[in-house]
Amino acid sequence: MRFTNEEMIAALQELNAKQKPVQGLLGAFIGAFVGFVFYLFISQMGAAIIIMLAVPPASIGLFARFTGQMYSLKYRLPVGAIGALLHIFGCYMLGLTPLTYILTPVAFIIAVTLSKVKLERVHIWAISQEEIGKLNAK
After folding, report:
1. First to last CA, the chain
2. Number of C-beta neighbours around residue 4 at 10 A
3. What is the reported pLDDT for 129?
4. Cβ-contact 84, 104 below 8 angstroms
5. What is the reported pTM?
């Protein structure tokens, strides 16, 4: 399935217009607050399961996705950094073993991956065409 240049330019302009990195960072901080509350809940429970450590970075990524509508990796990297920092803080707060600090890159990847907005096929084509230089949406 091919799309015309006009369709791809319109799709790319639509993506760029919807993308709001500042609101995405605000959403990431809101998700970090929710994750912090979750860490407080885990600490009161007395037992921290490794899978529970994925919930705060996931909340950061999801809040950033719905508030920022970001597709570009350069705007989603700070969201991942917030997720990694919250993971390190949560491991410290829970008093977990140093082995759990090794999962920090996993928390980073979870936050970055979940913060990406779902793209339609025309958007994927438009982004790839712009990256190789065949499409100029500016």
Report:
1. 24
2. 9
3. 85
4. yes
5. 0.86
Over the stretch 65-93, which tens digit does the pLDDT of each residue have?
999 999 989 999 999 999 999 999 988 88
Please work out, in degrees rounded to the nearest 5, the angle formed at the alpha carbon of residue 118 by the alpha carbons of 114 and 121.
Answer: 145
Specify the amino acid at residue 16. Answer: N
Burial 10-49 (b: 16+ CB within 10 A, else e): ebbeebeeebebeebbebbbebbebbbebbeebeeeeebe
Q: What residue type is assigned to position 118 of the chain?
A: K
Query: In the prediction, which pLDDT does 137 show?
Result: 59
On the question of pLDDT at 1 being above 60, the answer is no
